Amino acid sequence: MNATGNTSAAVRLRVNGVVRELRLDNRTTLLDALREALRLTGTKKGCDHGQCGACTVLVDGRRVYSCLLLAVALPDSDVTTVEGAVRDGRLRILQRAFLDHDALQCGYCTPGQLCSALGLLIELAAEGGDGTAPAGAVRERMSGNLCRCGAYTHIVAAVTAASKTIAEGTP
Amino acid sequence: MKTFRYERPDSVATAVAGVAAHPGAAFLGAGTSLVDLMKLHVEEPTLLVDVTSLSLDRIGTARDGGLVIGATVRNSDLATDPRVRAEYPLLAEAVLSGASAQIRNVATVGGNLLQRTRCPYYRDVTKPCNRRSAGSGCPALESRLPHSPHLAVLGASPACAAVHPSDLAVALTALDALIEVTGPHGTRTVPITSLYRPPGDAPPDDTVLARADMITAVRLPAATAAWPCAYRKARDRASFAFGTASVAAALRMTGDHIVDVKLAFGAVAPVPWRARHAERALTGRRPVGHVLRQAVDAELVHARPLHGNAFKVDLLRNMTVSLLSELAGRAA
Ligand SMILES: Cc1cc2nc3c(=O)[nH]c(=O)nc-3n(C[C@H](O)[C@H](O)[C@H](O)COP(=O)(O)OP(=O)(O)OC[C@H]3O[C@@H](n4cnc5c(N)ncnc54)[C@H](O)[C@@H]3O)c2cc1C
Ligand code: SF4
Ligand code: FES
Ligand code: FES
User: Fold this and answer.
1) For residue B48, which of A27, A33, A31 has the smallest C-alpha distance?
2) What is the spatial distance between Cα A56 and Cα A43, in angstroms, rounded to a whole number?
3) Which of B53, B100, B242 has the highest number of chain A CBs within 10 A, making it the mutation to test binding with A?
4) Domain ranges of chain A
5) Which of A66, A101, B145, B196 is close enough to A31 for a disulfide, judged by CB 3.0 to 4.6 Å?
6) Where's the FAD-binding PCMH-type domain (chain B) (predicted)?
7) pTM score > 0.90 for this model?
């Protein structure tokens, strides 16, 4: 147990497949570690209080709000941001669907929407079933991502369509 | 946020000793409630003792056949657990009605039970608030504006009328869950129905737990397993919102009579509200419309709505009557 009286710590994270060793003040959230220390600015800061979803990333394959998690509490975690998620074929299908369905206006919420939708697809796969998400289920399960421009109907259509494309493409 | 030290102990005893030894220390679950309040300066711990590496993240079977849920089981894992879904579905419904997938994916059971009220004055350190600082006043009750729906209609005191925000706690209150606690002087079991403290005139203590008391597990008695049960929640928007009123109910019938019923209300009182008056009025009766309405009113006569939130009493009555008649239909 560390009892050295330190208010900062060495933190080892695997971010988008690369191990990063950081010295961080204990107050640093995962969001600030990504944006400020690692200059990965794809992940956005909206509310900074867990209320909007702009900061959504995947930690060990689960979607989370990076603004509410302390980086020091995530030792050796596997973090995927929107920059790294593009290596996942499913994210590219989601991006294509967002473009095809006009699922963004200003785009500020979009990285969070995409990471959240990827997390949703991972959850659906783990739950079994055919992997597709009907519009009603998408609306409920994407409710942790707000869009100040109100592109919701198009976002729901895009995620629904992408889940179908992916389910059909999976052998 | 103030600076703080961080420790990740590998045993419950070390975690409890760590918090007991440092006056400014607090346990840390995922931090989705605590880190938020630290950013707002509502909480200013000088040491965080992380409990998420203590191997308390499993759901197992108790000796009586009930479930033992570790304190650091993530909310989403609780809601998808096959035994929870089969035997205590109201628990899964309550968890899934709360927060968002991103929060549930990390939030722990212990942290969920001990999250603080969402009263906006409590979260704003530029305002007085008895629950933050006893005796400083209650702007929510003193306001001349109509009282907003976030305040209590049952069990409030003149010092505080904030509601407890947890959905999970309401479901566990209906199920008579037992909370396993380890403190500096050993372990004990606290029924969830006596975990939360009514505000009285000393509202800062939400629960009967002392600062260094750690929740290690939640036990669900086998007795209520597989009863028809459900959770209903009314809120301002369809998803990702705290409740305006919620109801957790479980009941058992013999023939056309209710033989046993458990009923709890959420978002309407400073504590998850076990509706014992209504339960007594329902036991042994046929679940027909007027019986259900009278039984619920036996509870709601104790309601003391504030200017502007009386609608919560009607909302609660309608939600409870319709939920009970649905469950009775399923049980028959
Ligand atoms: C935008 C938003 C919406 C939300 N909506 C809902 C909702 O609709 N319904 C709902 O029920 N909840 C809701 N929540 C609250 C959420 O469920 C809680 O934040 C979460 O459950 C807390 O768990 P945690 O592990 O992050 O706790 P933490 O933040 O880590 O801890 C919370 C408190 O519990 C203490 N603690 C933690 N673990 C233990 C332990 N084992 N023993 C003793 N003390 C402990 C901490 O010291 C702290 O005081 C919402 C939260 C946000 C931010
Ligand atoms: S209702 Fe309670 S929490 Fe809200 S301002 Fe009053 S004392 Fe504080
Ligand atoms: S920035 Fe994290 S939820 Fe809004
Ligand atoms: S596109 Fe502007 S916030 Fe969503």
Assistant:
1) A27
2) 7
3) B100
4) 8-83, 84-169
5) A66
6) 1-225
7) yes
Assess whether the C-beta atom of A114 lies below 6 angstroms from ligand 4. Answer: no
Query: A143: which residues sit within 8 A by CB, 6+ positions away?
Result: B100, B238, B239, B240
CATH of domain A8-83: 3.10.20.30
CATH of A84-169, one of 3.40.50.11890, 1.10.3720.10, 1.10.150.120, 1.10.10.10: 1.10.150.120
Domains recognised in chain B with CATH numbers: 230-331 (3.30.390.50)
Distance from CA of B104 to the nearest CA of A (A): 9
Average pLDDT over every residue of B6-32: 98
Is A146 close to ligand 4, i.e. is its CB under 6 Å away? no
Partner residue opposite A69 with nearest CB, options B31, B76, B238: B31
CB A62 within 8 A of CB A78: no
Interface pTM, i.e. ipTM: 0.96
DSSP string of B283-315?
TTS---HHHHHHHHHHHHTT----TT-THHHHH
Closest to B174 in 3D by CA, of B298, B89, B79: B89
Residues in chain B: 332
Token representation of residue A28: 């640093």
How many secondary structure helices (H) and strands (E) does chain A include? 6, 5
Q: Which two tokens stand for residue A166?
A: 């992916």
